[in-house]
Design goal:
6-stranded antiparallel β-sheet, 395 residues, 39% helix, Phosphorylase Kinase, domain 1, 26% strand, 13 helices
Length: 395
Amino acid sequence: MNYGRYQIIKELGKGSMGVVYQAHDPNLDVLVALKVLRQDRVVSEAFVRRFLSEGKALGRLDCANIVRVYNVDEASGTVYIVMEFIEGESLNEVMKKKRLSPEEIINIGVLVAETLDYAHQKGIVHRDIKPSNILIRSDGLLKITDFGIAHIEDAYASEQTQAGEILGTPAYMSPEQVMSRPVDGRSDLFSLGIILYELCTGIRPFGGENLAAIFKAITQDEPAYITSINPSIPQDLARVIMKCLKKNPDARFESGNALSEALKGCLRKKEPEARGVSAQVPAQKKLKNIGFILSLVIILMIMTGGVAYYVVSHKTKSTSVEEVRTAYLNIESFPVGAQVFIDNMFKGKTPLKIGLPIGKHEVRLTMPDYHDWEAQVELKEEGETPLSVRLSPSG
């Protein structure tokens, strides 16, 4: 099957508006991504205009982090857009495979925020920022794609979104999108905030059993604070992300650049700790310390016999004390029946009550068709600690 001169190789994915294929351009001898409008959309002139607007939007953008458009055309009774083919995977796929570090999350946030800032300055609001629309190339370069419902400030803008029409992916919508109000770049920053929250915690900030419940959560509910779910996330990063999720656009960051600078600030605060002060010690001073260190090692070796005797004689008593200091973790999940792994060992399925030594434990919940949930839980005192987890569907 061909569209114009483009030879279809295989299907890459489907969306609400079209199908994306991998294709070959014989004129340039390169692989391209071909987005073809669904046949049932062709009968609607409004949908055709919206589909072609994606090509127009991307054609106006010249940014290394935005998928490039090569051509927009019509053939075989439909319309299609020829785009740059990306070798890599979506952020959605990356999220399923591993938990990213705070530094990796910040770097992704900075790149997406700066890219959105560029588009916003060109008068384009993406309106559908979500993990599957953020691609990570095999060399690590990040690319944003699918501007199919971008709000373009031109003569057609008022026609493309009629009153009461909701566009976008429900779980990543801003409150103003849900309520069909005018949107600007701060709507995209709200959606990016949802992604960063999900990267930090493993769950989305706004969930529900159905569309109405999700919309209610987005417009009315305050999400749980990030560090209450994942204490390993730095407070500065948590504060930046929570600001992105403010219901009122005026309370969010005013631009993608402002958000980018705030995220970079989180990295800068960590740098002095990472560098430390030991690198500033002169080499000669370090050499003078070697003799002292060797002497100390010899003294410690002599003392080892006495220490070993003390440890053996108190081993039984210490062990009994540790066994007494046990806390109970009461784990529930929605939906129930998730597999529970504690410190990488399978312990059963939810709901589950289990006794654990006081201290920090790695807890992971898995369930088919849902994103893994993982966090570090610290049990500080004896007794029962509740843990309630709402799993996020992976579809």
